Amino acid sequence: MQQTKIVLPDRDIPKKWYNIMADMPNKPKPPLHPGTKQPAGPDDLTPIFPMDLILQEVSTDRWIDIPEEVLDIYTLWRPAPLFRAHRLEAALKTPAKIYYKYEGVSPAGSHKPNTSIPQAYYNKKSGIKRIATETGAGQWGSAIALAGKLFGLEVTVYMVKISFSQKPYRRVMMETWGATVHASPSNVTNSGRKFLEQDPDSPGSLGIAISEAVEDAATHDDTNYALGSVLNHVCLHQTVIGLEAKQQLELVGDYPDIVIGCCGGGSNFAGISFPFIHDKINGRQLRAIAVEPSSCPTLTKGEFRYDYGDSAGLTPLMSMYTLGHDFIPSGIHAGGLRYHGDSALVSQLYHDKLIEARAYTQTPVFEAALLFSGTEGIIPAPESSHAIRAAIDEALLCKEEGKQKTILFNLSGHGYLDLQAYADYKEGKLIDHEHPEEEIRKALEKLPVI
Question: What range defines the domain where residue 289 resides?
Answer without folding.
Answer: 5-9+67-109+233-445
